[in-house]
């Protein structure tokens, strides 16, 4: 595939001077790419066959990279040692927006070679292995929305992220005229991602002023998540190079939020469509999503801000229900024949795709193992239905995850406790913060 290369080709291009930098990265708890830029020669001589190392605090910090208490794997008391970044050479890709650079994603291991179980990519791999035991593979596609501002990231920072100028003044959902206004940026992102080995499907405008979406072809679930993080990081870097900014916050203002709908299907190792060939399996897999959605919402909506999306009439779901091509439901069934799949509309663009996809596999397998019966579809407006509701706060989702026996059985206590602590850290920080809302209401009038 264009944009991809193997070790042999990498050696050739390093030798002829085409490549001088290798970006070695992994995905942290927050879904961000972290890592190092390495001299290409050093990468070949010292990392290939040996791996690299990084401080294990990278899976035990908050969004602002503060060291925090409560993580068993990494703390002051353990000395904040290293873990190993083991390159997955199947992910070698070009980085066209950084000339002379290629990227490779890493799996995290301890120094003795055992996996770092709290690593998001490892968490997904474990659940993909459970599918493989049945002769199945999950395929996924993520749809990331973002809002573009004319302000640079530095200007946005200096303005306190207030009163920024969106790239569009009005709703440009499906508008060719409106999206043409920033087509140079969107085109640059699309072409750059194609050059990195991703398969771009389309770009379209969305409802919130300045809001857009670029969609990519589905792939095997781990590869799809790899593409997600490469794209998300790359889009920000390209925006910065163009002197503008874009945000994947779930809810950047009171208008429509940024979603990350995740489509999922299952195929046999021979490529046969399991959902189409076995309607009973599809029903059970979907029933598992419904039964366990509340318990696993923390992995779909990991931040305080995530829950601001869930508003009636916003195209973000509030009701835990399913329907055929019904965008008011949390779970939307789409496709026909071999393309039959379901769309999880709960995640926002701030989601960690590995964790969310792992949660969907866990819920689906539970539905199959328990032979759950699928409830009737919801026809009509789910916002006004009496269906169970999606948790509306991080605190509620945290409590549901903490009490989930399924989560502890499927992920293990170490993983569950790790991500519960991440939620606790965010809740504690938010509870201590004095917000603009409080100042506006209380500075003079209270």
Automatic annotation (TrEMBL):
Residues 120-446 form the GS catalytic domain. SUPFAM superfamilies: Glutamine synthetase, N-terminal domain (SSF54368), Glutamine synthetase/guanido kinase (SSF55931). GO terms for molecular function: ATP binding; glutamine synthetase activity. It comes from Cryptosporangium phraense. This is Glutamine synthetase. Belongs to the glutamine synthetase family. It holds the Pfam family Gln-synt_C. Keywords: ATP-binding, Ligase, Nucleotide-binding. GO terms for biological process: biogenic amine catabolic process; biogenic amine metabolic process; glutamine biosynthetic process. PROSITE patterns: GS_BETA_GRASP, GS_CATALYTIC. Residues 17-113 form the GS beta-grasp domain.
